[in-house]
């Protein structure tokens, strides 16, 4: 199993989410992440927006990995959202996003945070992986896709998870 498999829980996988814009995407993500920890949705949203102001977390190829370190957070939390229709990052003129992997980590961030980012970037850079995710209708199928693709790519799953 890869690092993502350790942290991506069933209740934090959403498929065919309909959002009007990036602001609504971040709001929904913050609320869902807050339900999984003792940090308020407002504090999570503020951390994500602060990080996004440093530079877009949209990677291209319809993928974004919004991430932030959050004061007082106990443990890493991930949330995967596949959008029903693309959402534009960067004021509508930038990258189209269909797959969003939100990552929040305790402050200060550590090596595991970097491992998750590297693993996700490696997975999402593969068109076949994205295609597999688009075919998933349920959270369990998405989690299985992450696990299965990590097994296919030993270089992604051989890193220490903790």
TrEMBL record:
Query: Matching CDD domains, A to Z?
Result: PTS_IIA_fru
Cite the Pfam families for this sequence.
PTS_EIIA_2
| Name of the protein this chain belongs to | PTS EIIA type-2 domain-containing protein
**Spans traversing the lipid bilayer:** none
- MF-aspect GO terms: protein kinase activator activity
Among PROSITE patterns, the record links this protein to: PTS_EIIA_TYPE_2, PTS_EIIA_TYPE_2_HIS
Q: What is the lineage of its organism?
A: Bacteria, Pseudomonadati, Pseudomonadota, Betaproteobacteria, Burkholderiales
Write down the Gene3D superfamilies for this protein, in alphabetical order. Answer: Mannitol-specific EII, Chain A
**Residue ranges of the PTS EIIA type-2 domain?**
6-149
What species is this protein from?
Bordetella genomosp. 13
């Amino acid at each position: 199993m890869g690092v993502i498999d350790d942290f991506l829980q069933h209740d934090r996988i959403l498929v065919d989410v309909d959002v009007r814009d990036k602001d609504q995407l971040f709001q929904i993500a913050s609320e869902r992440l807050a339900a999984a920890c003792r940090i308020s949705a407002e504090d999570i949203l503020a951390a994500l927006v602060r990080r996004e102001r440093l530079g877009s977390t949209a990677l291209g190829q319809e993928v974004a990995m919004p991430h932030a370190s959050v004061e007082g957070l106990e443990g890493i939390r991930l949330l995967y959202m596949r959008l029903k229709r693309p959402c534009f990052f960067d004021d509508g003129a930038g990258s189209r996003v269909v797959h969003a992997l939100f990552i929040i980590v305790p402050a200060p961030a550590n090596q595991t945070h970097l491992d998750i980012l590297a693993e996700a970037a490696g997975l999402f850079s593969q068109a076949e992986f994205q295609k597999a995710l688009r075919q998933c209708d349920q959270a369990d199928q998405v989690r299985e896709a992450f696990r299965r693709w990590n097994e296919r790519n030993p270089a992604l799953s051989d890193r220490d998870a903790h």
